[in-house]
Amino acid sequence: MGGRVTKERGYVMNWSNWSEFFAMGGYGLYVWGSYAVTFICVFGEIFLISNRRRTLERQYGLINGLNKKEINNETTS
After folding, report:
1. Rg of the chain's alpha carbons, rounded to an integer?
2. What is the pLDDT of residues 6-17, one digit of tens each?
3. Distance between CA atoms of residues 19 and 3, nearest Å
4. Strand locations in 1-77, DSSP E?
């Protein structure tokens, strides 16, 4: 099902239709499932990092704003 051995390129897979390709010789659920889990983890990590960055920028902005007010109050008095 779907493969042949050649001298030049080793084991070469060939499928007669797309459903055989997605089935992956009966291991399609594991193959495509692992791709899905990997992509979900990668995109989740990107989302969490960007969310954390926004939170830190917001916190830094508040801290920086408080420091500027304190400096302005000290110089005017």
Report:
1. 28
2. 556 666 667 788
3. 15
4. 3-6, 10-13
